[in-house]
Design a protein that fits this description.
NAD-dependent epimerase/dehydratase domain-containing protein, oxidoreductase activity, acting on the CH-OH group of donors, NAD or NADP as acceptor, NAD(P)_dehydrat-like, Rossmann fold
Length: 359
């Protein structure tokens, strides 16, 4: 892309949980943006979080980053001030979505922040971001896949989740937060963003691109302070190396598809300037995995944790039971994506977890 240091990008580190509260995907997007020469404005909930992020950046790149405070993305007009006070923004990347289990009120804790954040950022850009040319929104393959169906899912598919099903306890609240809004006529959360783009008056001067990434492994962010703060997708790898599964691996279900976080970050950054990306969704997935395969990789790549792992032949590989496949042809053809292998991704993930324990 060349040196784009005079271009501003906006990467969202707000919300009660960005993939588990650690800013996992957002961190890797940030480092990719800096590698490409972008200046970046982050949004964070607190100055302490912003300072922690800055402290973990190389000194030479730290000067390219500033942060603004956005306390709660579910609030009306939450992003107005930060957009208004940064008139030179060219691109906006919105990654914030709460990811945690066991919420007492899933509408207030998960669904509303996910929906209001996705549409709220678009509204703020529409009102005050006259210099913004493109918004890239992080969604999920949870907004694509219909559980139990036997087919290859692509960007043309939409999951059938509804708010009513979430309230009835059917499926995960995280998946539903990606595909429902609290209204009498359930609309997909991501569809709400597309709906805004179609109906806003006057028509938006910026374009929208959506990244639908699947279960995401990869190195944890360096500012993660404890194993309990590891993002949800990496939690299974964390538990594996911590000895939680020493007596036997749990089922891999319900998710058998994976991607490395560095590829997710690359997809976001490529989408900023790719002339064919506007108006498109991109399924970002590298392939299939099973817990047994992950365990075998850990045993091979990180023998120092051997004592924490279950017996070599103690568990059957259950990947043959899964029927859902994800098609990533569009990401390869349009964005030029190539994907890291599972062995490299898991090996790097484990090493980052070991470094956290050593700290």
């Amino acid at each position: 892309m060349g040196n784009l240091r005079q271009t501003w990008a906006f990467s969202n580190f707000t919300a009660r949980g960005i993939d588990g509260g650690s800013g996992f995907i957002a961190w890797h997007i940030l480092t990719k943006l800096l590698d490409e020469g972008y200046d970046v404005v982050l949004t964070v909930r607190t100055s302490a979080k912003g300072d922690a992020i800055l402290q973990h950046l190389p000194e030479g790149k730290r000067r390219l980053v500033s942060y603004a405070l956005v306390d709660e993305i579910a609030k009306e007009d939450a992003f107005d001030e930060v957009i208004r006070s940064h008139p030179n923004l060219t691109y906006v990347i919105h990654t914030a979505s709460p990811v945690f289990q066991g919420a007492a009120d899933i509408v207030a804790s998960i669904i509303s922040p996910a929906i209001n954040g996705a549409t709220g950022i678009l509204k703020s850009v529409h009102k005050y971001g006259s210099s913004v040319s493109r918004v890239v929104l992080t969604s999920s393959t949870a907004a694509v896949v219909a559980p139990g169906a036997s087919k290859v899912f692509t960007e043309d598919h939409w999951a059938p989740h509804t708010l009513e099903k979430a309230l009835a306890g059917e499926g995960s609240a995280y998946s539903t937060s990606k595909v429902s809004i609290p209204s009498q006529t359930p609309l997909l959360a991501e569809k709400a963003a597309w709906d805004f783009m179609r109906k806003a008056a006057p028509p938006p001067s910026f374009t929208l691109t959506v990244i639908n990434n699947t279960w995401t492994f990869g190195p944890i962010a360096p500012f993660v302070a404890s194993l309990s703060s590891v993002n949800m997708s990496n939690a299974g790898v964390r538990d594996l190396v911590a000895g939680v599964f020493r007596s036997g691996l749990p089922p891999t279900a319900p998710v058998f598809t994976w991607v490395d976080v560095r590829d997710v970050a690359t997809a976001h950054v490529l989408s900023l300037t790719n002339p064919e990306a506007p108006g498109k969704r991109f399924v970002i997935a590298a392939g299939d995995f099973s817990n047994k395969t992950v365990c075998e990789i850990v045993r091979k790549r990180c023998p120092e944790v051997e004592a924490q792992l279950p017996p070599v032949d103690g568990d059957a590989d259950d990947i043959g039971d899964q029927t859902v496949r994800l098609g990533n042809a569009r990401s390869r053809a349009v964005l030029g994506m190539s994907y890291l292998g599972l062995e490299e991704s898991i090996g790097d993930t484990v090493r980052s977890l070991v470094r956290l324990v050593e700290k």
